[in-house]
Please model this.
Amino acid sequence: MQLSIYQVDAFANAVFQGNPAAVVPLETWLPDETLQNIASENYLSETAYFVQDGEGFHLRWFTPSKEVRLCGHATLASAHVLFAHLGYSKAAINFNTLGGLLSVRKEGDHYVMDFPTDAPQPFHVLRSLEDILGVQILEMAKGTDDYLALVESEAVLMALQPNFRALSDLNTRGLIVTAPGTTTDIASRCFFPNVGIDEDPVTGSAHTVLTPYWSEKLGKTSISATQGGVRKGQLNCMLKGDRVDLMGKAQTYMQGTIWI
Model:
């Protein structure tokens, strides 16, 4: 069997930026074991698969070790493949996913993803997490999948060198660490050792938590964001009630064929 595969840098203004995702368009679903094996072989933070489903598409995401409920950058990458390579011509793409109905529209050279917000709930500061990070946590919150920790500054954020083995003991998908930005409104780094990703360069789903969190703190609904450590990406976030628009660019890095 031969399958087309695309590797796309999402939330990137140029290749070698943002967060790489693999996208594999399918005519029909393959066994879950095969989907997981391909994702493990790719060894990217996410491999996305989609199958046409009526007027939209059924979309799924796999890390190297498991399927996940919600992924932003691989959704952006999937929309990019449909718009840029597969001739999709409608104004917006609807994706049916484990995380609900998602849509992506194209505005100039940007893509805008319409996602449900994940309003973070206040959470007590875990002193054990401060020990793992080696910094003071000013406050914490918890979304559906992840903890969120606020630190003092972007400089503190960039200097983090977490103990990933210790982080994997958290009873969540992962950890979002955030601070006020220097060149953007906010900055963040995201760590997901529980799903085989020590650090994710740009995480769309994390910004469904970060946007309502920072919107309340900053008193505005439009927020510019940067995420990442060594490798970074940029996006703009707009809070719209119980939905959030996440805007960014995508760049095709590679196109090829899988032989299985």
The two ends are 5 Å apart (CA to CA). The chain has a mean pLDDT of 95. Helices lie at 32-42, 73-84, 127-133, 154-158, 164-167, 207-218. The longest helix spans residues 73-84.
